[in-house]
């Protein structure tokens, strides 16, 4: 099966993260002193989008202005690991975005370079590339690519295969693009710039109304307004659909918009409708944030591995480090959680009170089948994980294979391992793993009368008599 061909057209940046620790302030001002522990550079803007698409298995070509300076050459080298680069002329020095970070938080951001406007555009080359692509992603970062007349002329004939990720300093999409993906602030500003009000009844219009109005103003086939942790609002034809995030995602949101746009573009290219593409994009963007965002790119395995975290998930070691950075003890528990019931919820809520973060190690479908029999699980692992992530007390869910979670625990190394029920801790194989790295095992009681097996048995024999009064 041939790989999906995507052409990413846009503005590139060089992202630098300066990471360190802070334990004092300067004597001459109330400013923190950062002791630097590492400096990491990686492609941003359209460069990040290209790497994300390559990590998803696509055949990627990046068309972008790239400066002829050391940072521009570094950008090219990093992207060419995974994608073909067609450089355009670049006005000024490479645009850089430097974040100074400590403990998973950004203290200050410094932007430099630019303006990055295209100075030479080989129109025939661009036309040949976009004509042959399954999908074109326009990644606008305000450098001037979307305002270039030659590029707009080459994008207009293929607008039906274009996903446009806009920027407040960029130009609006060419008419007829398949999907535009502004965030709420960008969408409101674009409506105002277009001479249309973004107000509703007695206040600002909701994202759903903004999406519908902007889709009409821009002349897009579909438009998705991304609303951060809430999800996305898709205006497609005469209706608006809401795609919620699959549970809470606490982490670095930097790059989530790129993750969203790339996932939507590839899903459309592979035959999905707009609604399905946006739903997948929301799931992937949530996973990206949960896995640590662009900061996690610096810890991916191997110098030539383009796939960033977010879809397949981060390593257990990286997950533990990220959660511990929030403060408090790392708590873990495990089980099948085939039909989530009140006993499960009570146990999870109590487990969360034992520390600062709670990770659930979830038996895979094969593991549940081996433990419970051929008729189980009732719900696939992806569905069970989604239900668990929707609980406010659960910070992350990790699916494992095998009869017990000992191997996963050896890598996660939680401070506390929680089990629910009447166990003899001496018989738990995972006890020795947890205690071996200095952790402890805590037992919590089950809620009487609550078990998945009992619920399934009752459902096979009819409703409970004490519930008949509720009918």
TrEMBL record:
Keywords: Carbohydrate metabolism, Kinase, Multifunctional enzyme, Nucleotidyltransferase, Transferase. Residues 333-427 form the Cytidyltransferase-like domain. The keyword Nucleotidyltransferase applies. Residues 4-294 form the Carbohydrate kinase PfkB domain. One of its GO terms (molecular function) is kinase activity. Coiled coil: none annotated. InterPro entries: Archaeal_FAD_synthase, Cyt_trans-like, PfkB_dom, Ribokinase-like, Rossmann-like_a/b/a_fold. PANTHER family: BIFUNCTIONAL PROTEIN HLDE, FAD SYNTHASE. This is Bifunctional heptose 7-phosphate kinase/heptose 1-phosphate adenyltransferase.
């Amino acid at each position: 099966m041939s790989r999906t061909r995507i052409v990413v057209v846009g503005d590139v940046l060089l992202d630098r993260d300066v990471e360190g620790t802070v334990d004092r302030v300067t004597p001459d001002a109330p400013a923190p002193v950062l002791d630097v522990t590492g400096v990491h550079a990686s492609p941003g803007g359209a460069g990040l989008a290209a790497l994300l698409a390559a990590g998803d298995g696509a055949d990627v070509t990046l068309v972008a202005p790239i400066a002829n300076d050391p940072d521009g050459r570094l950008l090219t080298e990093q992207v060419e690991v995974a994608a073909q680069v067609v450089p355009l002329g670049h006005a000024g020095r490479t645009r850089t975005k430097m974040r100074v970070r400590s403990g998973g938080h950004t203290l200050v951001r410094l932007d430099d370079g630019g303006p990055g406007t295209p100075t030479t555009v080989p129109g025939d080359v661009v036309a040949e590339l976009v004509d042959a692509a399954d999908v074109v992603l326009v990644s606008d970062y305000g450098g001037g690519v979307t305002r270039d007349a030659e590029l707009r002329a080459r994008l207009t004939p293929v607008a039906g295969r274009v996903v446009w990720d806009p920027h407040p300093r960029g130009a609006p999409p060419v008419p007829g693009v398949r999907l535009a993906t502004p965030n709420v602030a960008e969408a409101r500003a674009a409506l105002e710039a277009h001479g249309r009000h973004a107000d509703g009844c007695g206040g600002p219009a909701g994202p759903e109304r903004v999406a519908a109005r902007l889709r009409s103003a821009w002349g897009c086939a579909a438009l998705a307004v991304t609303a951060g942790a809430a999800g996305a609002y898709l205006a497609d034809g005469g209706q608006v659909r809401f795609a919620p995030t699959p549970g809470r995602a606490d982490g670095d949101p930097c790059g989530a918009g790129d993750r969203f746009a790339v996932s939507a573009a590839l899903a459309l290219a592979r035959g999905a409708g707009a609604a399905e593409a946006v739903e997948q994009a929301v799931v992937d963007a949530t996973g990206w944030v949960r896995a640590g965002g662009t900061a996690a790119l610096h810890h991916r395995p191997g110098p030539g591995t383009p796939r960033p975290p977010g879809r397949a998930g981060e390593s257990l070691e990286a997950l533990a480090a990220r959660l511990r950075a929030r403060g408090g003890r790392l708590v873990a528990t495990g089980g099948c959680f085939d039909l989530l019931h009140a006993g499960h919820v009570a146990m999870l809520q109590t487990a969360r009170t034992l520390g600062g973060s709670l990770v659930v190690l979830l038996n895979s479908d094969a593991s549940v089948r081996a433990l419970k029999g051929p008729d189980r699980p009732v719900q696939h692992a992806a569905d069970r994980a989604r239900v668990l992530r929707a609980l406010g007390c659960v910070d992350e869910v990790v699916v494992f294979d095998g009869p017990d979670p000992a191997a996963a625990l050896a890598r996660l190394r939680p401070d506390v391992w929680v089990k629910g029920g009447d166990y003899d801790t001496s018989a738990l194989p995972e006890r020795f793993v947890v205690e071996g790295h200095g952790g402890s095992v805590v037992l919590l009681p089950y809620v009487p009368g609550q078990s998945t097996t009992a619920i399934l048995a009752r459902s096979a024999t009819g409703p409970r008599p004490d519930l008949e009064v509720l009918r």
